[in-house]
Design brief:
Order of helices and strands of chain A: EHEHHHHEHEHHEHH
Strand content of chain A: 5-15%
Distance between the termini of chain A: 6 Å
CATH superfamily of chain A: P-loop containing nucleotide triphosphate hydrolases
Oligomer: homodimer
CATH class of chain A: Alpha Beta
Number of domains of chain A: 1
Number of strands of chain A: 5
Number of helices of chain A: 10
CATH topology of chain A: Rossmann fold
Structural class of chain A: alpha/beta
Largest sheet of chain A: 5 strands, parallel
Chain lengths: 196, 196
């Protein structure tokens, strides 16, 4: 059995998106990340920025709220985005060999045995340096920005998948990108993907 | 910076011990696993089987109990074993390049930057087949044996390290041994260890 799809879950700032794109380039397949947002926007009518947030993060303090609203009032915008996003990802995986970054793709494709599931993370210092270099400074300290994003992404993952974010057992391979560097992670993942 | 030590944390039945030994052989360094138990036995006077259990597992239903006893009555046998075991591991890491399997070595050596921290896991079916093949049948179904060991090892890790067992962020590299197979895991870890 050989792999057809790579899903990359990643901590904010760990370089998962860059690694996903470069890995896809090296393998001669497509990497889906922001393109999924475009497609959700097209199908749902929601704004891109709105989808970008709702499609991967739960706002602070909204968790209980969100769960209650699901139970009593039917699907929220968040749930509609989740549904459209899920259908797009399942469809992509059926159609072509590709890399899919984020959006709980590992969970959505968990019943397929041709998916290499990857989780990328890094220490706070590495990620802090990286987000300031790439996205610039803001009023908030980079450590605070990272902690917030980590919490929101974790909450999102748990609400939608009922699994623990960052648990190694949900993935085939997990790497600390800060320890190994981008080049090495790409080489290692490419080799693992082509292994069988 | 190059690595000197490899710590291997592993799920019961995932083949972590075998991989650790073979990896050490390939690297021409020692692998410490059962030898640590022998040394604890020598230094503490406790029986080997007793140490084997207490040095990595918390018995079912004992967690609250154990915590209370620590607080009110000073060190228990478990804590004495933990202390001796910790000293042995810190000492080993100072003395020589080696592979250390289990016993929260990743946590004990967390302040060193020459330690490659590895977590190995595998799906239930792979582990069940493996433990029956290696250790034989018992009255209990292999799945039940695995679930019990998982719970006990997780509890032990949490009590002593205050970290989440199996959280990818505590390790440099995590692998599903069932997905990749023993040979590939050894090759990959050897390469990662020698990388820098």
């Amino acid at each position: 059995m050989s792999y057809k799809i790579i899903t990359i879950s990643r901590q904010f700032g760990s370089g998962g998106r860059t690694i996903g794109r470069r890995l896809a380039d090296e393998l001669g397949i497509k990497c889906y990340d922001r393109q999924i947002i475009d497609q959700v926007a097209e199908e749902s009518g929601f704004d891109r920025e709105y989808i970008k947030e709702k499609g991967e993060y739960v706002p602070h303090g909204r968790i209980g709220n969100l769960m209650n609203r699901w139970s009593y009032y039917g699907p929220t915008n968040e749930e509609r985005i989740w549904q459209i996003q899920s259908d797009i990802i399942l469809d992509l995986a059926d159609k072509e060999s590709c890399v899919i970054v984020g959006r709980c793709a590992d969970y959505l494709l968990k019943d397929r045995d041709d998916v290499l599931k990857v989780f990328l993370h890094a220490d706070m210092a590495y990620r802090a340096e990286r987000i300031v270099r790439l996205y610039g400074e803001t009023d908030q300290k980079p450590e605070k920005r990272l902690t917030d994003k980590d919490k929101q992404r974790r909450a999102y993952y748990q609400i939608y998948t009922d699994m623990e974010y960052g648990d190694a057992r949900n993935y085939h391979i997990c790497l600390n990108t800060g320890a190994f560097g981008e080049e090495y992670c790409i080489k290692l993942l490419k080799d693992a993907f082509l292994k069988q």
